[in-house]
Design a protein that fits this description.
alpha+beta, four-stranded antiparallel beta sheet, globular
Length: 59
């Protein structure tokens, strides 16, 4: 896994609360982590993440 350029917090995150963070790699992957557990990182593609978010919005 290549190192992310920088982590971005969700705009819905609250200060001092549990936050979802995203980062892009130079190989086109999207990394997702929980700020409380930064050592656990999920890896996906932009397309798969977009489909997941659309499915959430529809439900």
């Amino acid at each position: 896994m290549t190192a992310p350029q920088s982590w971005q917090k969700s705009t819905y995150s609250q200060e001092g609360g549990e936050c979802v963070e995203l980062a892009a790699t130079d190989r086109g992957a999207v990394l997702i982590r929980e700020s409380d557990e930064p050592g656990i990182v999920l890896i996906t593609t932009p397309r798969a993440l977009a489909r997941f978010l659309e499915a959430i919005k529809e439900s």
